[in-house]
Structures are given as C-alpha cells and as structure tokens.
Known about the structure:
The chain is α+β, with helices and mostly antiparallel strands. It has one domain. The chain has helices spanning 6-19, 58-74, 86-92; strands spanning 23-32, 42-46, 51-53, 78-83, 99-107. A hairpin with a 4-residue loop joins strand 2 and strand 3. The longest helix is centred in the middle third of the chain and has 17 residues, at 58-74. The two termini are 25 Å apart. 27% of the residues are buried. The model has no long low-confidence stretch (mean pLDDT 87).
Amino acid sequence: MSTVPQRELYRMINDAADRGERVVVATVAHTRGSTPQQRGAKMLFFQNGEVAGTVGGGCIEAEVWAEAQAAMRSGKSQLHHFSLTADEASEEGMVCGGTMDIFVEVMNI
C-alpha cells in the first residue's frame, strides 16, 4: 500500500459521501521513536472493503484494519496506541522500534 496525496484522499471521502457509504479514516496522530510513517499519514477504509493510503504497512496495518472494521460496525471513533518496541519488532521481523497513536475516525456521511 502506498501513500496517496491528501487531495485525492479527500476526493475519495467525498465520492463515498455521494454514494452514501460510511468511511473510516485512520490517521497517525503521534509517533515516538522509529516508526514506518509520520504524523498525519492517513489510510481510508470503505464499506465495500476497499482501502487507500497507508499508516505503515505490515502488522501495524493489519491491526489498524481490524480496528477500522470494528469502528465501521460500531460507528465509534477511537484513539489506539500501537507499540513497536524492540522486542515486538524483532519477533515480527520489523525494523521499527517506536510507538504510534492512530486515531480511527468513523465518517458518518
């Protein structure tokens, strides 16, 4: 998954609104240490299963995907903390070793 220019992400959100489709936006709110993406990176999750953008790849995106699906069902936005500490990173084969706070926001359009 690659980054998508913000203008394109907002166009995609607008298009989903035109279709009456719920969108979940995951935004990197805070990072500390070595992380795969920096603050402001976004990933969109659509009701039809499509995704756009990235918040880091690998296991972080798998965890964010699961949280986004839960938010899609519940309609509730929430801030999530993800730890990429050296122990966890080495177990997963990651090169990062920081922490990330990612806000998973439900866009009730």
